[in-house]
Amino acid sequence: MRDLTSDTITGAVISTMRDTKDPRLAEILHSLVHHLHAFVRDVELTEEEWAAGVDFLTRTGHTCTPTRQEFILLSDVLGVTMLVDALSNRRSVKSTQNSVLGPYFREDRPEHSDAADISGGLTGTPLFFEGRVVDREGAPVPGAGVDVWHSDADGHYDMEVPGRTDPAMRALFRTDGTGHFGFRSIRPASYPIPGDGPVGELMSATSRSLMRPAHVHVLITAPGFQRVTTMLFPSDDPYLDTDPVFGVKQSLLDSYDTYEADAGPRRGLTDEPYTLLRRTFVLEPH
Ligand code: MBD
Ligand code: FE
């Protein structure tokens, strides 16, 4: 046998996988080894650097908890999440575009009926959300599941609010016969992605900002339609152009109109200025 060299090792590894049963897995592994080796050759990775990389990934795994998914965050800040979305979801321009799921979705959210207050007693500018779910022809989609979740005025999601364990600022709604859902909550603020773990080290080493623009997450499922995982941003947020997870799209900007307490469509429901977000979500058929 011949000793392997830096020229022959890539082919040797790939040929060990030639009996892979699943053809798609074979294709993925072949390409992964090819590109991984090319990367190592390209930068002439040293032993110390490779050890640091393994340590980084190990700590990324150790930072994962049920409420903190550091690997998802790593995928988000490297643009992989949005790249996979761009390749998987070539939707018609009329349909609502996807964004990042992010690390703060919770399965244990409560189900609420229309017009519920989901602020959990937290204080902030009142936010009224009025949504509609329709198909590409504009016909209402009744019975769609609509998950919403967002942060408070300090940028904390419920699990990060000191001293709080109950779900707040999140709920699952069902659209009514006309495709409507709606709720009351508090207006979210821009805030930094978690910076105290390995992803934070990567961000500071590359002098990147942790600040995400304010947003309300919306996830919609309905039989016969593609799932929509999206979010809405205030169109005047100062962090739109530097979102660390690349989730901003022009079509997901919203004016987040603010009214005095005695003016606008929700006048009289609050005694302070409030924000009204109205949005029609257009689903793409399967
Ligand atoms: C968030 O709130 C978020 O939505 C994403 C995608 C990443 C980090 C924090
Ligand atoms: Fe978020």
Describe, in short, the structure shown:
The chain has 286 residues and is of the alpha/beta class.
- Fraction of residues in helix: 10-25%
Largest sheet: 5 strands, mixed
Provide a count of the helices.
6
CATH topology of the largest domain: Protocatechuate 3,4-Dioxygenase, subunit A
Total number of beta strands = 12
Rounded to the nearest angstrom, the distance between the terminal CA atoms is: 53 Å
Task: Report the top-level CATH class of the largest domain.
Answer: Mainly Beta
Rounded to the nearest angstrom, the radius of gyration is 23 Å
Cofactor: Fe(3+)
GO molecular function, one term: ferric iron binding
Keywords: Dioxygenase, Iron, Metal-binding, Oxidoreductase
Family: Belongs to the intradiol ring-cleavage dioxygenase family.
Task: Describe the fold and architecture.
- The chain starts with 8 loop residues before the first helix and ends with a strand.
- The model has no long low-confidence stretch (mean pLDDT 94).
- The protein is built from 6 helices and 12 strands.
- It folds into 2 domains: 9-45; 75-282, Aromatic compound dioxygenase (Protocatechuate 3,4-Dioxygenase, subunit A).
- The chain has helices at 9-16, 23-43, 47-62, 70-77, 80-88, 198-205; strands spanning 116-117, 126-134, 145-150, 170-174, 180-186, 191-192, 211-212, 216-221, 228-234, 253-254, 257-259, 274-282.
- The strands form 3 sheets. Strands 1-5-2-12-11 form a 5-stranded mixed β-sheet, with no helix packed on it. The chain has a 5-stranded mixed β-sheet with strand order 4-3-8-9-10, with no helix packed on it.
- By secondary structure, it is α/β, with parallel strands linked by helices.
- Strand 8 and strand 9 form a beta hairpin.
- It is elongated.
- Bound molecules: 3-methylcatechol and fe (iii) ion (FE).
- Its cofactor is Fe(3+).
